[in-house]
Design brief:
heterodimer; A: Creatine Amidinohydrolase; 2 domains; five-stranded mixed beta sheet; 20% strand; B: alpha+beta; Creatine Amidinohydrolase, Chain A, domain 1; Creatine Amidinohydrolase; six-stranded mixed beta sheet; five-stranded antiparallel beta sheet; 35% helix; 24% strand
Chain lengths: 386, 378
């Protein structure tokens, strides 16, 4: 049994979320509001932020909202009612269940003597058309500014979130290493994922975004099918476990049997592109610059025509459930890197000789370029070479 | 009502099994959709879904999105068009392997793309019916979509689709039987592991692996904690929840080829709450028939069990492409069972910290209901 990485015991979740709520309230007040309501539909995505999780540490299972009053006190409204015990265990006694969260929020505003105009709504983009009338009835029409404000504020990750991100990266690497021990011809793609999922669960991951596909020439990486892995295949794995709500991602390529020379060369090319992109991930630098730096390496090698869909999608992306800024790493991005930005950088793409290959790591933006959150860069791995 | 923690991505076996769900099955479904559209005067139907909201896309095309939203455009007499993928067509070779629909596209602006496809198919005006619109979009996205479709009269198709999905076809029932069989394997694996290790978390890892190795695309679990509350599993960081071991109470749900099944069980099976669950699953099916409501089922329970019924939570809802779908007998006072409904009965009986669960899936007929395992289509 592999030992799971240990997260730092310090700082605590309780302290971290208290500071987050205080900062959010201060930012709301600076924008002319007195209080904050955060909404979640609990339709979680690796590519989206969940404000409830960020502000309370509670990962909702169904529709949920939290109100943060002018004095910093807060109330969490949870559904379903039987999930109350789990919520209280995470956030303390400030939790109630209510079948109508927006009505609960409206009543809370009345209790604390505020009007709708004095509250900032975060998570407006999570409110479906079907729920929108109830939200408007309770909180009035909102301009959506709270969503961007929350993303920007949460972008400055605290020590607690960074510790979880590092733990998740460690779990991803350990899970991958154990998968290599089990990987063999004859396994279906879905069986590979089932085995990998089990490892990640054992190591402490509560969720996983995973793409696994194998082919003699992959067109892309995708959810697992029934196709069996065979000698001569390249198996691709995007492994993205979550620990305590923080996702990470490593991107790995494995040859089943000895790799042909083009695959090894193409992987080295992607690795060089990764390094070029990594160097461009500096505070104040444009996100598009990182994508351009990676594209430049591939273009110089004669693959400029392949630096666009459908041969690739993005050169990296944010990772929830905290802030997903800096967003997709693409040449069209308008975002600017900030120190401490945490995301996955991956020059994953299709090349005509080898097909689609994966090569990517979770990184943190620092003045000298992106620092790896994983222990080391992935290499082109081989199983069944003998 | 039952809730489970949804993953960010359904990442088990993703395929189109032509033996179980052949092309003609989807042709029949499409005919039903086109008849319903014609009855409401619609010249086209557009369905939306994402991994959290199943809908017309999976029902008509077998394409089950793992994460990114998907759209299906259905114009009578014309090939279906599927708008799917994360962007730029990278995912389309895979998507085309999951469906017979080969006109697969992606648009940076969905509404503009839909309007272009409708126009390409000769639909330039008239009534267009939308399914899944209220669930899959926020107000800003919806406004953009409606602006792009401004040349059409938009009407909802959700009730019509829900009606079709309620009346399960034989092949749908067949897939749900397979899903249930996989969950039985998962239960057996769970109990075997529990006996060996004594650890609920480890046994659930084994159960999930068993289900996914058998081809499930998604697997969810709830387990009883020592404080008597029900918790989603996994709980985030192993060891943070103390799971109850006496009794062990587990609720499992799995999706196979798009269709859900669930199973609830407690171990050991003896005890007052387990006995109560067993009684409920005798009384309720005996009372359930076309025309039954949640209230009538509760009344039957009270009559048979007296005050013991107060310790019972009964859920009676439809199931299929969603874990919970119409009719919501136990949550909607106006809902009535009708012939062809597949109803999942979930019974929770609590006594202090002891909580037992049991489940049963039945098919409603005019004067009775029959277990799913025996059921023939109405």
């Amino acid at each position: 049994m592999t030992q799971r990485p240990q997260a730092s015991d310090d700082p605590t979740l309780f302290d971290a979320v208290a500071v987050r709520r205080r900062k959010l309230l201060e930012a709301a007040k600076a924008s002319g509001r007195e209080a904050v309501v955060i909404y979640s539909a609990a339709a979680h995505s690796m590519l989206a932020m969940d404000g409830i999780w960020w502000a309370t540490g509670f990962k909702p299972m169904a529709e949920c909202a939290v109100g943060i009053g002018p004095d910093g006190t807060f109330e969490l409204w949870v559904s379903p009612s039987w999930d109350l015990a789990r919520a209280k265990e995470t956030v303390g006694e400030h939790v109630t269940s209510d079948p109508d969260l927006f009505a609960a929020a409206e009543a809370w505003l009345v209790r604390i003597g505020l009007t709708r105009d004095e509250v900032l709504l975060c998570g407006a983009n999570k409110i479906s058309v079907g729920r929108h009338p109830s939200a408007v009835a309770a909180l009035g029409e909102q301009d959506g500014s709270g969503d961007r404000l929350l993303l920007e504020l949460a972008r400055q990750r605290d020590a607690y979130e960074l510790a979880l991100a590092a733990e998740a990266a460690g779990i991803a690497e350990l899970g991958y290493q154990r998968l290599l021990e089990e990987l063999r011809p004859g396994l279906g793609e879905f069986a590979v994922v089932a085995i990998l999922d089990g490892f990640l669960r054992e190591l402490g991951s509560e969720d996983n975004f995973v793409l696994v596909s194998a082919s003699q020439r992959n067109r892309s990486v995708h959810p697992p099918t029934e196709r069996t892995v065979e000698r001569g295949d390249v198996l691709l794995a995007e492994i993205s476990p979550s620990v305590g709500g923080v996702f990470t991602q490593i991107c790995r390529s494995v040859t089943i049997g000895r790799p042909g020379p083009s695959i090894a060369d193409d992987f080295q090319l992607l690795d060089a592109a990764f390094e070029a992109g990594r160097g461009a991930c500096v505070p104040g630098g444009p996100v598009s610059g990182a994508a351009q730096a990676m594209d430049a390496v591939l273009t110089e090698a004669g693959f400029g025509d392949y630096c666009r869909p459908p041969y690739m999608r993005a050169r990296g992306h944010g990772l929830g459930l905290g802030s997903v800024l800096p967003g997709d790493v693409t040449v069209s991005s308008k975002e600017i890197f900030a120190q401490g930005d945490s995301f996955v950088l991956h020059p994953n793409q299709y090349l005509p000789s080898s097909g689609y290959l994966l090569c990517g790591e979770p990184v943190i933006v620092e003045p000298g370029g992106a620092r790896l959150l994983s222990s080391r860069k992935g290499e082109l791995a081989t199983v069944g070479a003998t | 009502m039952i809730h489970v923690m949804g993953p960010v991505m359904k990442h088990g076996r993703s395929t189109w099994d032509r033996a179980v769900l052949p092309f003609d099955e989807f042709e029949e479904r499409r005919l039903a959709v086109e008849r319903a559209a014609e009855a409401m005067g619609a010249v086209g139907v557009v369905g939306f879904e994402d991994s959290h909201h199943s809908g017309l896309v999976g029902y008509l095309s077998n394409y089950l999105t793992a994460g990114a939203p998907a759209t299906l455009i259905c114009v009578p007499g014309v090939e279906l068009t599927l708008v799917a993928g994360l962007g730029g067509g990278r995912d389309h070779p895979f998507i085309k392997g999951m469906t017979f629909v080969q006109d697969v596209r992606w648009f940076p602006q969905l509404g503009v793309g839909i309007a272009a496809v409708l126009e390409e198919h000769g639909v330039t005006e008239g009534r267009v019916a939308l399914a899944g619109f209220n669930e899959c979009f926020n107000r800003t996205q919806a406004d953009g979509l409606l602006t792009a479709l401004g040349g059409y009269e938009i009407v909802p198709f959700d009730d019509a689709l829900a009606g079709m999905r309620r009346n399960k076809r034989e092949r749908e029932l067949g897939v749900m039987r397979l899903s249930r069989a996989i969950l039985e394997q998962a239960r057996t694996a769970f109990l075997t592991s529990l006996e060996e290790t004594g650890e609920v978390h480890d046994a659930l890892v084994v159960a999930e692996r068993t289900a996914k190795l058998s081809g499930c695309r998604d697997f969810r679990a709830l387990a009883l904690a020592q404080d008597g509350s029900l918790r989603p599993w996994p709980d985030g960081r192993d060891g943070s929840t103390s799971w109850s071991r006496d009794p062990v109470t587990i609720y499992l749900a799995a999706e196979y080829l798009g269709y859900w099944a669930d199973i609830g069980f407690s171990w050991p099976e003896q005890g007052a709450t387990a006995s109560l669950c067993a009684q409920v699953l005798e009384v309720v099916p005996a009372a359930l028939r076309a025309g039954s409501s949640g209230a009538s089922l509760r009344a039957a329970l009270s009559e048979a069990l007296g005050t013991a019924a107060d310790r019972v939570t009964l859920e009676a809802t439809g199931m299929g492409l969603s874990l919970v779908e119409a009719p919501l007998l136990s949550d909607d006072a106006a809902a009535l069972a009708r012939g062809g409904d597949l109803i999942c009965l979930r019974v929770w009986a609590q006594d202090g910290r002891a909580l037992s669960v049991a489940t049963s899936a039945v098919l409603v007929e005019e004067g009775r209901c029959t277990p799913l395992d025996d059921a023939q289509p109405a």
